[in-house]
Write a structure and sequence with these properties.
Structural class: alpha+beta
Strand order of the largest sheet: 2-4-5-8-7-6
Oligomer: single chain
Helix content: 25-40%
Low-confidence stretches: 16-54
Distance between the termini: 68 Å
Order of helices and strands: EHEEEHEHEEEHHHEE
Length: 288
């Protein structure tokens, strides 16, 4: 029987941005190599939870993470769960060496590589006095492209993998249901609605071959959900009991009166209607 693997809440948060796995490019390791040590005091600063989620073993996948979530401790734990990590890492992390944090005096378009067991930290300088730190457990070696920008393959793969995430964020911001709120569960619910609507549009175009714009699709989707909700609301309504025929009772329409009395029901809906709330001609209420 296959053993089950466990994921902490912090790992699940990073896996939510899961993308298709990519083959690591082979190449000769470049620049200097340093050892990086993990600081246990910085492991669970963003999410303190002991809850775990059990999942069956699966094929190796790659997770793309932003700088606010990526860390060396998270990369090692994901690697134990057969998941590689590729993402930018914030320079305030304690596991980053001081040499990697310092951006002054670096040559433009230069690259430095730091290694810690199965993790690689690539420090790339796209401009003078500016560096980008990319943490990767997907690559075994770093290969620099032979072009004008001389980007390492870790940076190139990260840009390619995050492109789909950026496009998704751009589409969600264009048509969103988000509103100002101070409760984080409501904010998460708004985000789930936006993602579900966008995925529904993608599946609709893939299954039907339609070229309908996303705006028209969202309007139709909202109208269908609204119509279904109103139908269920009408079914939940309990009809108001009608009095016995010929009995004097209050007007059940009360659109133009103030609780007048009536003995004549509406010929269409059967509600007792006074003279002020009836229409001209047959004895019909103003709603019929």
């Amino acid at each position: 029987m296959a053993s089950q693997r466990t994921y902490t809440a912090k790992e699940v948060l990073a896996i939510l941005t899961n993308v298709d796995s990519c083959e690591s490019d082979g190449g000769e390791e470049l620049s200097r190599t340093y050892e990086i040590t993990s600081d246990s005091s910085d492991e669970d600063t963003s999410c303190a939870s002991d809850e775990v989620i059990q999942s069956p073993p699966r094929k190796r996948q790659t997770t793309s993470a932003p700088s606010i979530r990526a860390s060396l401790s998270l990369a090692n734990r994901l690697l134990e769960s057969n998941t590689t990590l590729l993402g930018t890492i914030n320079k305030i992390r304690r596991e980053i060496p001081l040499e990697a944090k310092n951006a002054k005096g670096r040559e433009k378009l230069s690259t430095e590589v730091y290694r810690s067991d199965g993790a690689l930290l690539t420090v790339y300088a796209p401009k003078t006095n500016k560096t980008v730190c990319v943490l990767s457990t997907m690559h075994m070696h770093v290969k620099i492209a032979d072009d004008r920008k001389r980007k390492p393959n870790t940076v190139t793969d990260y840009n390619r993998m995050k492109c789909a995430v950026d496009i998704m964020d751009q589409k969600v911001r264009a048509y969103t249901v988000r509103a100002g709120t101070r409760r984080w569960p409501v904010a998460v619910f708004y985000n789930l609605l936006d993602l579900a609507a966008m995925n529904a549009h993608v599946l609709y175009m893939a299954c039907t071959g339609s070229t309908e714009s996303r705006r028209v699709f969202l309007c139709a989707l909202a109208e269908e959900l609204r119509h279904r909700y109103l139908q269920e609301k009408e079914l939940r309504k309990t009809p108001r009991p009608l009095p016995a025929p010929g009995k004097k009772t209050q007007c059940q329409v009360q659109s133009h009166c103030n609780r007048n009395h009536s003995i004549n029901p509406c010929a269409a809906c059967g509600k007792y209607t006074c003279r002020k709330c009836r229409k001209e001609g047959p004895w019909l209420c103003s709603n019929c």
